[in-house]
Amino acid sequence: MPLDPETRDRIGTASEIHISSYRRDGSLRRWTPIWVVQVGDDLYVRSAYGTEGGWYRWATAEQLARVRVDGFETDVALRPASDADTNAAVDAAYTEKYRSQPSALAPMVAETAAATTTRLEPAPA
C-alpha cells in the first residue's frame, strides 16, 4: 500500500532524507542521510553499503523506520522490493534524480545496493 499523497510528496521530492530505527527501549538510533526515489506512487530507498549498511540492518530487522525531511517526521514500514522489474525502474529513477552526482550515484545503482531496494509504506497503526 502506498503512502498517502501528502506524505509521499514531502518525502519523495526531497533530495535527501534522514532515516533512523528504533532501539528496544523505544529510543531512536543515529539519523542517517539517504537518497529516496519515486516510481509511480511508491517511494524506494537503498543502502549504498548493501546489506551491511548500519541503518539498513537495524531498520529491516523490524521492518520499521522513522524518516525525517524538512522538519517533518513519520514512521514507515519497510518492504523488500528487489525483483528485476522494480530494480530496473528504481535504477532509472536514481539515475534521473541524482545524475548530477555521478560518483555518489554509482554505488546506488550497483548490484550491492540494488539487493537492498526497499519500498516505504505506511507504518502499521
How are the elements arranged and paired?
Elements: H1 5-12, E1 17-20, E2 32-34, E3 36-39, E4 42-45, H2 54-62, E5 64-69, E6 72-80, H3 84-97, H4 102-108, H5 111-114, E7 118-122
Antiparallel strand pairs: 1-2, 1-5, 3-4, 4-7, 5-6, 6-7
Short characterization:
The chain is built from five helices and seven strands. The chain is an alpha+beta fold and 125 residues long. It has a single domain, classed as Pnp Oxidase, Chain A, CATH 2.30.110.
Notes on the structure:
- With 125 residues, this protein is of the alpha+beta class.
- The chain has a single domain (5-118), classed as Pnp Oxidase, Chain A (Roll), CATH 2.30.110.
- 34% of the residues lie in helices and 28% in strands.
- The protein contains five helices and seven strands, in the order αββββαββαααβ.
- The chain has helices at residues 5-12, 54-62, 84-97, 102-108, 111-114, and strands at residues 17-20, 32-34, 36-39, 42-45, 64-69, 72-80, 118-122.
- Strands 2-1-5-6-7-4-3 form a seven-stranded antiparallel beta sheet.
- The longest helix is centred in the C-terminal third of the chain and has 14 residues, at 84-97.
- It is globular and about 40 Å long.
- The relative contact order is 0.22.
- It holds the Pfam family DUF2255.
- InterPro entries: Split_barrel_FMN-bd, UCP028498.
- This is DUF2255 family protein.
